Every structure is written in structure tokens, then in C-alpha cells.
Amino acid sequence: MIGSRTQLRHAMTALAVLLSACGSASEQLGPLGELAEVAASSIRTGRAEEPPLVMPEGAIPADVLAQSPEPMIALTLGGVQRIILSAAPYAADDQQNFQDQNRRGIRMHEGAVSGTYGFGIDLLAVRFQRDDPVAHPVPLIQWPGQVDREYQYRQRDLYNYSIVVSCVFDRVVRENIEVIERYETVRIVETCTNQRRSFENTYWVEPDSGTIRRSQQWTGPTTRPVIVELLRASAEG
């Protein structure tokens, strides 16, 4: 059994090299990509399931806002304590980079995570539809029922690939949350699927503005979701 699994790994490595020689790839490209995905999944069977993430509790002290006049978030990775991050100065309002001193962090497109830094296989970009309310905020009553989204990656061998999913929004419940202060929000669960995978994102949305105050978002097949809390939306003048 061990020998056969080793041979299968070698075969999949050769297949990955063959695919990378063809340029970028997508999960929707066809049988070669599907074969690689199925075989890789069979190799990974038996891995322990990740424990569920725990939402942060309690409001963040308002005096943290004095650290910077820039947009600010609290980031929770893998259930570890909140990290307070400020956006890089002079960034566009809809594309903001939040990084720590080790240049590890995320890029935000409004309420959507659109890039990661220092996570291993990083999320390079996300292609959003114009009516995607996570990236283009609108009042909750105007949210569409479904959007398509493309997540783009580059592996360590510089092989590019993308994951295209269709995402359906489901309004769950009204819920008060504490971030810097107490907010009245509606919790939205978004289920994203394609032929090979399914994952969920959760958003706590202010219904009148569409502002996402807290979210738990998927960033890739090899990383745990991140929890993002909005502390300040725009730079102070």
C-alpha cells in the first residue's frame, strides 16, 4: 500500500508539471485537471478535520483607533487572538492592504478579502462581478441571490491556477455584535460551490448600508478561513 501511494504521488507530480507547462489553469478546465484533483484528494484522505473557528468575543477598546488615522481592521487567523492592522497610507478606498511588521496580512476590496500575504500558497486576486455586494456594498434589500467569483493563486513553482465558484446568499438572523461598539447586523451565510468543492463564508451586515462589520472568509483550499472585523472604514481627514 505504501509503495503504491508513493508511485501515485510521483505520477501526480509528473501530471502537475505537465499541466504547469500549459500555463495557468482553472478547476473548470476539464478531465486532466479533474484527475489531478481527485487523485490528490485520495492521497489526503485520513487527515484530521480542522476544528471549527471560534468567533471573537467582546468589544475592542476604542483607544486602539488612536494608533493610526488609516482604515483599520482586526484579523483573526486560525482561532488565534485578534491582530490589529492598519491600511497602507494613500491606498484606494476599495483596495486596501493590511499587513503586520513581517508583511503578513490581507488585501481587502471593501468587505471582501481579495488577497493574502505570507500564508504559503497566497491568494493573488479575486475577480468579482459588478453586482457582488461583498465587494461593492449596497443595502441588504438589494443583494442578489447569487454571484460568480474567481479566486486566483500562484503556487511556489510559479504555476498559476484559479478556482471559479457560484455563491448563493442565505439570510439567517438579525444579530447584534460587538466590535468597536455594538452594531445591529443581519448574519448572512454564503455557500460557494463548483463541481469539486464547497465552502461557506459568513457576513455580519448592516442592513441599511450593506457595510460588513465582521466576516469569516475562505481564502484557499490549503489555508483556514480568516475572521475580519472592521474597526474604521476610511482614513480620517
Automatic annotation (TrEMBL):
The keyword Signal is assigned to this record: yes
Signal peptide: 1-25
PROSITE patterns the record matches: PROKAR_LIPOPROTEIN
Top-rank taxon: Bacteria
Pfam family name, one: YjbF
Keywords: Lipoprotein, Signal
Protein name: YjbF family lipoprotein
Naturally occurring in which organism (per UniProt): Thermohalobaculum xanthum
